[in-house]
Write a structure and sequence with these properties.
By secondary structure, this protein is mainly α. It is built from 14 helices and 5 strands. The strands form 2 sheets. The chain has a 3-stranded parallel sheet with strand order 1-2-3. The chain has a two-stranded parallel sheet with strand order 4-5. The structure holds adenosine-5'-diphosphate (ADP) and tryptophan (TRP). Tryptophan binds next to β1 and α8.
């Protein structure tokens, strides 16, 4: 029997190559090895996206992104979180086991508090809903980016706590974090993130990529000056799209000062466009066939709901309500 994999992405904005290299690529690499459940975390996004048109659009875009990068709906159950409402039921049950003090230690909440941002209960409770996502499908592994590590630990703690109180019920899931990836840098050198508006979009067209590449921040060394590969965001992006031989060559050019930032950026744009071309083509096909995407999500939700029902039956018995 194959082990089970689960992960999701929030529909909070345009999907970018940080999402791809940090998280989605693993979904793709592992779809043959695991029985996969990949979803669109729309209830999580509701914290930020409180506009129905945007919610629908971003959710559809994530579905298309999953398919355009090559996830195969025959192998992977693709679905919307909200299509399996048992997840909020399980989140309530977990709420009753989760000390507030634990949620007060969560990064997202602490960051929002430090910045004096408004904090709704959904943001505070985010890790509990995420634990419900993961445990509802008895997942073995959860591939995510480094920034989700704390959430995974909270899900593991929740599984252990439930098992301790009510008897062995949930598997304790393992996180899968690509060690060599870390945070992909954005156009301004900070972590690429929708919230910093510094992203390279997975669906950006050629012109946009050419323009954005030229805007990546660098220092002001001249063409013939040696350049620092570690400090250079352009170089760090090259790493994602280059063969080892290409990157060695570029490193040499940087060290000896035989390439200008302009040339490096042009080369990068070329590589990104080459990488994005098949994804754009697949996306264009899906744009013409929204019914197909909807059908795939519906089938995925049916499969996910069937799994969820099995576990919820057991959980309800264990807690004494069934
Ligand atoms: P954003 O910061 O743009 O809002 P999300 O928080 O929605 O992105 O992240 C979705 C997934 O993509 C998560 O698993 C996250 O770890 C990963 N991810 C997002 N940005 C990056 C990045 N710059 N580098 C690596 N992984 C990232
Ligand atoms: N919190 C994740 C993010 O910001 C999205 C997410 C929600 C998720 N539920 C999940 C990821 C369950 C993995 C498993 O990217």
């Amino acid at each position: 029997m194959k082990k089970r994999l689960l992960s999701g992405i929030k529909p909070t904005g345009d999907i970018h190559i940080g999402n791809y290299f940090g998280a989605m690529r693993q979904f793709l690499d592992l779809q043959n090895e695991y029985e996969s459940f990949i979803f669109i975390a729309d209830y999580h996004a509701l914290n930020q996206i409180q506009n129905p048109k945007e919610m629908a659009q971003y959710s559809m875009d994530i579905a298309k992104a999953y398919l355009a990068i090559g996830l195969d709906p025959k192998k992977v159950a693709l679905f919307k979180q909200s299509d399996v409402p048992a997840v909020t039921e399980l989140a309530w049950i977990f709420n009753c086991l989760t000390p507030m003090a634990e949620l007060e230690r969560a990064h997202a909440y602490k960051d929002a508090k430090a910045k004096s941002n408004p904090i709704n209960m959904g943001l505070f409770d985010y890790p509990v809903l995420m634990a419900a996502d993961i445990l509802l499908y008895n997942s073995d592994v959860v591939p995510v980016g480094q920034d989700q590590k704390q959430h995974l630990e909270m899900a593991q703690d929740t599984a252990k706590k439930f098992n301790r109180i009510f008897g062995e019920t949930f598997k304790v899931p393992q996180e899968l974090i690509l060690k060599d990836v870390g945070a992909i840098r954005g156009l301004d050198g900070r972590k690429m993130s929708k919230s910093y508006k510094n992203t390279i979009g997975l669906f950006d067209d050629e012109k946009t990529i050419n323009k954005k590449s030229m805007c990546i921040t660098t220092d002001c060394r001249r063409a013939d000056e040696p350049k620092d590969i570690e400090a250079c965001s352009v170089f760090s992006l090259h790493r994602l799209f280059s063969t080892e031989a290409d990157i060695k060559k570029l490193e040499k050019q940087y060290c000896e000062g035989s390439i200008s930032y302009k040339e490096s950026k042009e080369l990068l744009a070329e590589k990104i466009n080459k990488f994005l071309n098949p994804i754009r083509e697949k996306k264009a096909e899906l744009d013409k066939n929204p019914k197909l995407v909807e059908k795939i999500l519906k089938d995925g939700a049916e499969k996910a709901a069937a799994e969820a029902e099995k576990i919820m039956k057991e959980v309800k018995k264990k807690i004494g309500v069934a």
